[in-house]
Amino acid sequence: MAEGTRGPVADPHATSVLEARYRAALDKVPFKAGIYLPTDRVPLDRKASGMERVAEIHNGPLKTVYREKLKDLRRKHVGDKRAFIIGNGPSLNETDLSQLKDEVTFCVNGFFLKMPELDWTPTYYVVEDHLVAEDRAEAINALKGPTKLFPAYLAYCLDPGEDTIFFNHRARERYPHAFDFSEDASKITYTGCTVTFTCMQLAHYMGFQELHLIGVDASYDIPKDVDVDRGQGSTAVLDMASADPNHFHPDYFGKGMRWHDPQVDKMLEAYREARLVADRLGRPIYNATLGGALEVFERRSFARLFPGALPAGAMARVNGETAPEARRLAYARERAEAAGEVSNGFPRVLVLDVVPPGQMTATGELKSTLFAEWPETHLMQVCMDRHRFMVTGGGLTPGASATAAFTDDVIDRLVETFSPELVLFRPVADRDTFNRFAFSLVDRLDCPVALWIVDDWPAHLAETDPEQWAVIGPQFTSVVDRASVRLAISEGMTRAFAERYGKPFVAFSNAVDPRHWPEKVHVNPISDASPLIIRYGGGLSSRMTLQSVIDIAQAVEALSGPRDVRFEINTREHWAGKYGDRFSRFAKTTLTTALMATDAYRRWLQAGDLTVIAYNFDPETVAYVRHSMANKTVECLASGAPPLVYGPSEIHTVDFLERHGLGLRVVGQGPEAVGQALNSVLEAPARLKAMGEAGRAFAFQHRRLDLEQERFRSVLDTAARRLPPSGDTAEDDVFTRLNLEYKALATERLQRSEEAQMGASGIMALGSGTRTGRAGRMVWFYKGWRGALAGVASVLPLLAYLIHAIITGSAALLGGLLAASMTAALGVVFFFVAYLFSLIEDYSLGGRPRGP
Q: Which terminus of the chain faces fewer neighbouring Cβ atoms within 10 Å, N or C?
């Protein structure tokens, strides 16, 4: 090396100390072969500290901690029939992986390159190769979602964590003559020249009765430009100089990445040993890979396992796209084309949900978001406004559908005319009138049903009101059984409900359009003297959020330091009136009830420094919202003002944010714990901006509105086709007539009803006080015995006068006027009685004429 370019010279003494530490740690572990140890790419100081960590884990936690965690996984999967082990061969690009969403899955090595385009997260992630672990350590350590299962010897470069379980993975005992398959992975597993062999041992220990291999092609093409190093032991190391032709992604083992010579012949020997054990125990392993060279295991058609899967050609076109977002949209197009409706694909959906669309309620806004692109003529909802049944959409005049209240038989007629291809039904616990109507309508309709649940009211109702649950419970469970698809609000809820009801559920929650959330402008840089603004928008229910929001206010009040901190709450007037006085004593907290338009609400969130997602810690709150996903979660993330996450980890929303490392998590309970979390960002200003950017990136990648809308449409479209709708499904011109002659149609029906003296029950009430609806209610009141009684009473004075005149032969003018006046007065009285009845009906449960 020329003078002036000489690099730093290592301190010989420091080097010898590090080498001694490394050798001392190596003496404490039983594995000495090179395939279990750090390579020369790992600096000596990291080798020493890493091997010390390996020795510590191997001689302690491996038996005392991780073995118990593996036993917990075994208990968790008691009763689970099957699991899927996903390889990474090129056939994965021809496989419709969306079908695995509700399955237990083991993924391996570089599968995280595929995960951004999926709408599901693998259950387990396994790596056993030290080359993969070293070269991909940063990505593997950052991976969130799956439970990570790693051999203890990889702890020198793969970090421990709550989502990580190390296991005792060792060389096979019968080397070099045969392979060994462990039946107790909590004690030991054995190498088999492929990580999928390790997955088989882990899955077998967990108790699955069937294992299915996906993407295990078992064929390799070694590129000519690869650098082969045969000095690393019995297995050559291949250093790539170009793109990877052997896996689903060219960067899998791309340029600069190392991998071991695949030794396919030995791999197949290991598979044969796995089959011997599996067949002996009656727990078969099947190969569901599309194509490939693996014939050791019995083949199972992927299409047979998943009849709804797209064919290989369609998936190849999808994966021909480069960006994950483009692949997801291409998948949606292929799915629509397979259904035969590329241009439309929107079934006629009747939504039965007590909550109207929008109106700044969580459920209403979620419906508005997911149905935003749905044609109005293909979407009808029956809901309630206060105590009145309402109908929206379905081709009704927008103004009329927004203000009209309907009677039962009119709704029936409109539903019949609409001819839904699918009923999307969201039952609720505390609206008896709506439930009676909706369950009855669902029973009468001969079309597929999609069930939608957004909170665990069934469990809450069964516990708090057994009598009501005894009535509604059987109806609810019958719909669960009948439904073509069942929607829930979170992945946690899908798992809990699937276990409870024995039926699969699909999760849908809020999503965001990146165009609605421009990059956050940091108006209040945390390093200057301007106040730190914390903003909370939402309810203050005592059984959901109230106490935790009070804790935050107390924490803010107690903070002292160079920078002021302010807490701003925006809630509904109902909550402000009920609990507003609880916050009046806090000088640093303000509470408002401003009704903000959607864009204003977004800008309000973005103008803060922190947003808030909070839940109470009491058992009632946990039981009620344990499985729910807060609608505001994705909005807080998209705003760039990271959420202050405060609440018990048992609640799915909190757990979701915690698992993905999003937001500022409060560790513990009480104002002091909140204060410590806030001080942590006040003392480290850069953290706040970094958390905000991470939240936005996550929301825009994983909760994109266009992709979620397309998935929602695809799921409902599929559900609508599971049972053929009965009757003629041709479009009816009633919507044209309703749009052009809505009032005339209502008047015509009123006249027909009056002529038949039956008219009340079938009249549309246009608006809250129009004469048509009022007349219908008043006419209904006087049909039957009430009408007869009123008529007789009204004519009695006039009849008495006529009888008197006939008997006496004298018709006195004054007497006639008096009799006529009394008859008219009685008529007025009976008119106002009927009018009073119609007013009472405006505020009655159900908002419709009831039987006598």
A: N
What's the DSSP call for residue 542?
T
Strand residues in 356-402 grouped as ranges (E): 379-385, 388-393
| pLDDT number for residue 386 | 64
Tell me the C-alpha distance between 169 and 198, whole Å: 8
Closest CA to 423 of 449, 441, 405: 449
**Distance between CA 30 and CA 21 in Å, rounded?**
16
DSSP 726: P
The DSSP output letter for 207 is T
DSSP code of residue 30: S
Cross-strand pairs, 352 = 382, 425
Q: b/e string for 152-179 if b means 16 or more Cβ within 10 A?
A: bbbbbbbebeeebbbbbbbebeeeeeeb
Kindly give, in sequence order, each residue whose CB lies less than 8 Å from that of residue 2, ignoring residues fewer than 6 positions away: none
Can you say whether the dihedral through the CA atoms of 430, 434, 439, 440 is positive or negative?
positive
**Rounded Cα gap, residues 849 and 385, in angstroms:** 16
DSSP for 72-100, written as a single string: HHHHHTTT--EEEEE--SGGGGGS-GGGG
**Cβ neighbour number for residue 575 with a 10 Å cutoff:** 20
> Which residue type sits at 703?
R
Judged by DSSP in three states, 226 sits in coil
The per-residue DSSP string of 500-518 comes to HHSS--EE----B-GGGSP
Half-sphere exposure of 620 (CA within 13 A, CB side): 9
User: What is the chain's alpha carbon radius of gyration, rounded to the nearest angstrom?
Assistant: 35
pLDDT digits (tens, 9 = 90+) for 780-812: 666 666 677 777 777 777 777 777 777 777 667
Q: Quick one: the chain helix, strand, coil %, rounded to 5?
A: 50, 15, 40
Sign of CA dihedral 64, 69, 74, 76: positive
> In DSSP terms, which residues pair with 426 in a beta bridge?
353
For 280-337, the pLDDT digits (tens) are: 988 999 999 998 889 899 888 787 678 678 888 888 888 888 777 788 788 888 877 7
Q: For 65, which DSSP code?
A: I
Q: Residue 527 — φ and ψ, nearest 5°?
A: -85, -10
Tell whether the model's pLDDT for residue 725 goes beyond 70: no
SS (H, E, C) 625-680: HCCCCCCHHHHHHHHCCCEEEECCCCCHHHHHHHHCCCCEECCCCCHHHHHHHHHH
CB 513, CB 583: distance < 8 Å: no
- Is the distance from CB of 629 to CB of 490 less than 8 angstroms? yes
Predicted TM-score (pTM) above 0.70: no
Q: How far apart, in whole angstroms, are the C-alpha atoms of residue 744 and residue 370?
A: 34
Q: What are phi and psi of 568, to 5 degrees?
A: -115, 125
